[in-house]
Design brief:
Layout: H1 2-10, H2 28-34, H3 46-61, H4 65-81, H5 84-89, H6 96-110, H7 116-127, H8 134-148, E1 151-158, H9 164-175, E2 184-191, E3 199-203, E4 206-209, H10 212-226
Parallel strand pairs: 1-2
Antiparallel strand pairs: 1-3, 3-4
């Protein structure tokens, strides 16, 4: 796994993860990028959102949006498969040399070895002790890319993995509804055992909770109120 390679290259053995990541001011990269005339398609908030905005702007200015999106998508898949990676990136014991090695490893995995925008961005995160925010930045950047393409995210959460036919039926039904706003849907599926059964469908700022757990909660509330 990448976390093991990163730890080995950085020479990490035992380390403590801080309870919180500092959220101080952003430095040159983020500040300069947000001052450009290219603006992100939607407003994002939080430190990870600010970095995602800056990366979007820098990528758009250099006509490398697609390349950066592809690289970050590859990194995003790594985070999903390797939950220890964020823990390592948050390690307070990382030296300058450690961070340089980590950046090289991340670039290699992302397939962006020769992409200066990605390299500069990762370097900025490292300099500002924000490598631990990378996973969140990737998620926010995907939101920007979807908005740029005129897409709207359709999130489907179920207790067990759904087959393609079920996903397609839901996508078709939602696409014909007012919830889609006439936009192309970007389907994201999630497995969450504690929903017990049924589905939770989220699109834009709308949530349709058809889960068994939700029904049980409503029943429990009704019984409690009746006592």
């Amino acid at each position: 796994m990448l976390s093991a390679r990163v730890a080995a290259r950085a020479g990490l053995r035992n380390f403590a993860v801080p309870r919180s990541v500092a959220v101080g001011g952003l430095r040159t990269y983020a500040a300069a990028a947000t001052q450009q005339d290219v603006r992100p398609p939607v407003a994002l908030y939080g430190v990870d959102g600010t970095y995602a905005n800056a990366l979007y702007t820098a990528s758009a200015k250099t006509s490398s949006l697609d390349a950066i999106a592809k690289s970050l998508s590859q990194l995003g898949e790594v985070f999903k498969k390797d939950p220890k990676l964020t823990t390592i990136l948050n390690a307070p014991t990382l030296s300058v040399s450690d961070k340089q090695q980590i950046i090289k490893e991340l670039q290699t995995v992302a397939g962006g070895d020769k992409n200066e925008v990605l390299k500069n961005f990762l370097s900025t995160l490292a300099e500002n002790n924000r490598l631990g925010l990378l996973e969140g930045v990737i998620e926010k950047f995907e939101t920007l890319i979807s908005a740029h393409k005129g897409e709207i995210e359709l999130s489907i959460t179920s207790a067990q993995e759904l087959d393609n036919k079920a996903i397609q039926r839901i996508e078709k039904a939602v696409s014909k509804s007012e919830f889609s706003q006439g936009k192309k849907l970007k389907v994201v599926t999630k497995v969450q055992p504690d929903v017990l059964g049924g589905l939770i469908v989220e699109i834009g700022d709308r949530t349709i909770d058809l889960s068994v757990s939700s029904k049980i909660n409503r029943l429990n509330k009704a019984l409690t109120d009746a006592v």
